[in-house]
Specification:
The protein is of the alpha+beta class. The protein is built from three helices and 16 strands. It folds into two domains: 7-70, Beta Barrel (OB fold (Dihydrolipoamide Acetyltransferase, E2P)); 81-226, Trna Endonuclease, Chain: A, domain 1, CATH 3.40.1350.
Amino acid sequence: MKIEGKILKGTFLERPNRFLGKVEVSGEKHLCYIPNPGRMLELLQLGVEVYLKEESLSGRKTEYDLVFVKQSSLVSIDSRVPNRLTEEAIRLSLLPEFRGYDLVRAEHTYGDSRLDFLLARGDRQMLLEVKSCTLVKGGRALFPDAPTQRGQRHLRTLIAALEQGFEAAVLFVVQRADGESFSSNDETDPEFGAALREAASRGVKIYAYSCQVTLEEIGLLNRILIIL
């Protein structure tokens, strides 16, 4: 996926609220939009190098989106990116796990959840939920980085869909290249971890992919080991 628009280098200063950050660009302080509700405490630290995308839509209160954080590798923090990557990969048959499936609908409502994709292959239908992961410790990607009742609800919905004849899957997109395996972050949200293990035991397919991230483009890199 190509990164469109002008990208500027900055320094992170603080995060007044979930979606608002304060950065320094070329010696001047600016407010920016943070397109990710996660905590990202290990990423958004005072003085860290960040990259911002210039935005000029009318009605915006900020002129930048904070989209990358520099650690040992570049990390994409935009939680909108994984869905775009996944949709592109499915349409181009780049993911073996979903090859042969047609993308019927994005943002599909089933039960009490809005899931990311409804796929179909012949008379078989699959519900696919995509999750953005930015936290990596010692080579292991961890999700979530904050408690998520919404995430638990999505897993319950996928289990219920299986019982009604659907196929069901969760894809964790690790928005950095240094994730070598994936696990639920039980220390932060043990209930999500329990729900994920139950979903896997009931037949929900669990996948995770790392990403190659540059300032010019982002792409799915490797399917990584799931450790539940």
